[in-house]
Amino acid sequence: MEEKSEAEQQALDAQRTGQAEAKKVSDEAWTRADQAYKEAKKQAHIVHKKARKIAVDKQARKEANEAYKKAIEQAKKLRDAITEEAMVVFRYSYDKADADYLESQIKSREAIEDADETYKEAKEQAGIVYKEAKKRAVDKQARKEANEAYKKAIEQAKQVRDEATRKLRQGRNP
Questions:
Q1: Tell me: the pLDDT tens digits for 6-23?
Q2: How far is the first Cα of the chain from the last one, in angstroms, to the nearest whole number?
Q3: CA 132 → CA 109, 125, 136, distances in Å?
Q4: How far apart are CA 110 and CA 164, in angstroms?
Q5: Cα dist. 69→45, 95, 130 in Å?
Q6: Are 25 and 89 spatial neighbours (Cβ–Cβ below 8 Å)?
Q7: Which pLDDT value is given to residue 68?
Q8: pLDDT tens-digit profile of 35-53?
Q9: What does residue 107 show for φ and ψ, rounded to 5 degrees?
């Protein structure tokens, strides 16, 4: 399994936190929708019972039954609308957490690739300067100094790359 950098781990943690929060909000919405449905159903049942008691004929009882069925149907529709909206919000939040994580991963990897590319370019430039200095060197001491300058340039380029990469892996900009 690939080890994650500190920045990637932070992004992954943020993704998980966002998804957990979205699930929590969604679960609460489902619970509240179910409670609202049960309460509406209970109230409709109470009203239905009273309406049937005071109904004087068969037609009145039939209308009370129809009103009860409509009230239950409306309560179901309300519950379903709330849960559908909760799912939309949940899906959006969940997807946003995924997108944020992927974006941070991409940016981190691009920055590391840029640091590597800059290192390669610095190394190439140092090589060109070194070859030129070596050609112009008239004695052993001058060639030795050219070698030392080349080594220092390569080491410095490597340090710059490593420092930028380290900072990126720790979640900071270079």
A1: 767 777 888 888 888 888
A2: 27
A3: 35, 11, 6
A4: 12
A5: 10, 39, 91
A6: yes
A7: 93
A8: 989 999 999 999 999 988 8
A9: -60, -40
CA angle 55, 58, 64 (to 5 degrees): 50
- Per-position DSSP letters for 23-60, written without gaps between them: HHHHHHHHHHHHHHHHHHHHHHHHHHHHHHHH--SHHH
pTM for the complete prediction? 0.57
Distance CA 44, CA 71 (A): 6
The token duo for 77 is: 């529709």
Closest-CA residue to 82 (of 17, 31, 47, 134): 31
Query: What is the enclosing helix (H) or strand (E) of 166?
Result: helix 140-169
Residue scoring higher pLDDT (105 or 124): 124
The alpha carbon dihedral of 111, 112, 117, 119 has a sign of positive
Sequence-distant (≥ 6) Cβ neighbours of residue 40 within 8 angstroms:
71, 72, 74, 75, 78
Angle between helices 140-169 and 58-136 (to 10 degrees): 170
- Per the CB < 8 A criterion, the answer to whether 67 and 48 are in contact is yes
How far apart are alpha carbons 124 and 119 in whole angstroms?
A: 9
DSSP state of 3: P
- Supply φ then ψ for residue 57, to 5 degrees: -140, 175
